[in-house]
Design a protein that fits this description.
Strands 7, 8, 9, 10, 11 and 12 form a 6-stranded antiparallel sheet that branches. A 4-stranded antiparallel sheet has the order 1-6-2-3, covered by helices on one side. The protein is α+β, with helices and mostly antiparallel strands. It folds into 3 domains: 80 residues, ATP-grasp fold, A domain (Dna Ligase, domain 1); 125 residues, 2-Layer Sandwich (D-amino Acid Aminotransferase, Chain A, domain 1); 151 residues, Rossmann fold, CATH 3.40.50. Helix 5 crosses helix 6 and helix 8 packs antiparallel against helix 10. The longest helix is centred in the middle third of the chain and has 19 residues.
């Protein structure tokens, strides 16, 4: 679950992270009203969309008067903002965040995430932040400093201070930086986040640290523990197809390929997509059928997959378990295909609980499929179906 910048700042402020004074506004006149209340003569007006690169796309405007705030908000609201992260379709700007402009003497980069290699919470940072941090880090990885954090968000004595010094936060900034980093790590753990990123973290002339921009992503699977935060979700920012899948107990992400993928279990789904890609195939989606999905839920998910005109073949890779059997998934597929009359070829690999029964059910529905012996065989067969020479 992505949060808007203003929402993330509200949460982090509760963990001791200092942020500029500001408020969200949904109309140009209310944006002007916010500016009148701010203790500043310069203002920043920011488009609130779930995407990075807003500055380079014209989604952040720095102005010098209250009247200019209203004009900037008027220009942004209702605009479709296209950044390198939105894709060509862009995002519609429905709100702006108006805050005091801060004179930064130096911009630092800092983030908390789960390190994929170690599986541990990791605090990372760079002495110089900015929108080009990813490009600079790719060219010179040594600019990124790392501190592994304990599962409760703590670290060894003095570790946060040492990390601050690695980012050239010296003197009074060392302790302030350590306090901020400790708060970030605690927020990451307590809020079940998958990413918290501050870029930039401003160092002011008065030796203060202010989070000028914040990106925060929370784990959807943990939202039952955070109903107050769950209610902050901006449904207008969500893909309607993915929302429909969520309503039917399926995790689904649209991709750019031509091979539809039906899998139960996130781990198996990731491996399936990786194997497809490594073999030269291009998945049209990521699909994880939850253990709580019924056959009707599965049929709705299969409908979404088949509604994608790019899908030229479907790979069904299912390992039946105690709570999600192969026959339940077969029934869902059968309902969907009978409903839409789709003739897209299917490569099927069923294993585990009720695999034979699942195959029998598909036969009873009159659905033809190509049976695979194992995952490798399934990958080869489905890729062969979408090769140009197979047409």
């Amino acid at each position: 679950m992505n949060l808007h910048e203003y929402q993330a700042k509200q949460i982090l402020a509760g963990y001791g992270v200092s942020v500029p004074v500001g408020e969200v506004a949904e109309t140009a006149s209310s944006a002007q009203g916010v500016a009148r209340k701010l203790p500043s003569k310069r203002y920043v007006v920011k488009a609130q969309v779930h995407a990075g690169g807003r500055g380079r796309a014209g989604g952040i405007k720095i102005v010098d008067s209250v009247a200019a705030v209203e004009k900037a908000a008027e220009e942004l609201l209702g605009q479709t903002l296209v950044t390198e992260q939105t894709g060509p379709e862009g995002r519609s700007v429905r709100a702006v965040y108006v805050e005091e402009a801060i004179d930064s003497k130096r911009d630092v980069y800092v983030a908390v995430l789960v390190d994929r290699e170690t599986g541990k919470v990791s605090l990372i940072g760079a002495e110089q932040g900015g929108e080009d941090i990813e490009e600079r880090a790719a060219a010179k990885p040594s600019i990124i400093k790392t501190l592994m954090v304990k599962p409760d968000g703590s670290a060894a004595k003095g570790a946060f201070e040492s990390f601050a010094k690695k980012l050239n936060l010296t003197g009074a900034l060392t302790k302030k930086g350590a306090t901020l980093f400790q708060g970030l790590a605690k927020a990451f753990v307590e809020q079940d986040a998958s990413l918290i990123e501050i870029n930039p973290l401003a160092v002011t002339a008065g030796q203060e640290l202010l989070a000028l921009d914040v990106k925060m992503v929370l784990d959807d699977n943990a939202m039952f523990r955070h109903q107050d935060i769950h209610d902050l979700q901006d449904k207008d920012e969500l893909d309607p197809v993915e929302m429909q899948a969520q309503a039917n107990e399926i995790n689904y992400i649209r991709m750019e390929g031509n091979i539809g993928v039906v899998v139960n279990g996130a781990g198996l789904a990731l491996v399936t997509n990786d194997m497809l890609t490594d073999a030269g195939g291009v998945p049209a989606n990521f699909m994880d059928i939850r253990t709580t999905a019924s056959s009707l839920d599965i049929s709705a998910g299969f409908d979404l997959l088949l509604s994608n005109p790019n899908v030229k073949a479907v790979l069904v890779n299912v390992h039946g378990g105690g709570m999600q059997r192969c026959d339940t998934i077969a029934e869902g597929i059968g309902i969907s295909i009978k409903r839409c009359g789709c003739t897209v070829p299917i490569v099927l690999r069923f294993a585990g609980n009720n695999a034979d029964y699942g195959r029998t059910l598909l036969g009873n529905y009159g659905i033809s499929y190509i049976e695979a012996q194992d995952m490798g065989d399934a990958i080869e067969r489905v890729i062969a179906l979408v090769r140009p020479e197979a047409a």
